[in-house]
Inverse folding.
């Protein structure tokens, strides 16, 4: 798997500020392929997800981010919490959720990113990936 370059986007943060907290979505279809987006900010492939808003629960962030990014509304019970990771490269904490996809992504509207697709574990080495998303995928696939 190839990693794309990554810029430190929090370099102007005060060191007394709390670590940012976000969620990452493992949207997995029946074939075991994971939905990924071609990010327009980094020009490499990453998982869907985003930052939690103040007072928001991780589960609510997961539902909101999927709707914001793909215009797909799923009930909270479709999101299964997997684990939490500290991502040292960006000084952030990520709550990882798995969503078993059947036909829910048949007609999405991509609102963020340049493209999206389901990518198999075998295909991942052909894509440039966001480094911390690569780490999360390696952990997921073991």
């Amino acid at each position: 798997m190839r990693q794309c370059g990554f810029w430190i986007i929090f370099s102007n943060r005060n060191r007394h500020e709390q670590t940012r907290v976000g969620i990452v979505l493992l949207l997995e279809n029946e074939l075991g392929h994971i939905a990924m987006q071609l990010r327009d900010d980094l020009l490499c492939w990453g998982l869907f997800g985003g930052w939690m808003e103040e007072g928001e629960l991780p589960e609510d962030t997961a539902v909101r981010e999927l709707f914001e990014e793909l215009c797909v509304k799923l009930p909270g019970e479709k999101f299964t919490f997997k684990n939490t990771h500290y991502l040292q490269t960006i000084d952030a904490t990520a709550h990882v959720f798995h969503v078993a996809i059947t036909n829910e992504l048949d007609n999405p509207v991509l609102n963020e990113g340049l493209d999206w697709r389901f990518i198999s574990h075998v295909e991942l080495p052909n894509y440039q990936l966001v480094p911390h998303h690569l780490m999360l995928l390696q952990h997921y696939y073991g």
Q: What stands out?
A: Helices lie at 58-70, 131-141. The longest helix spans residues 58-70. Confidence is low (pLDDT under 50) at residues 5-16.
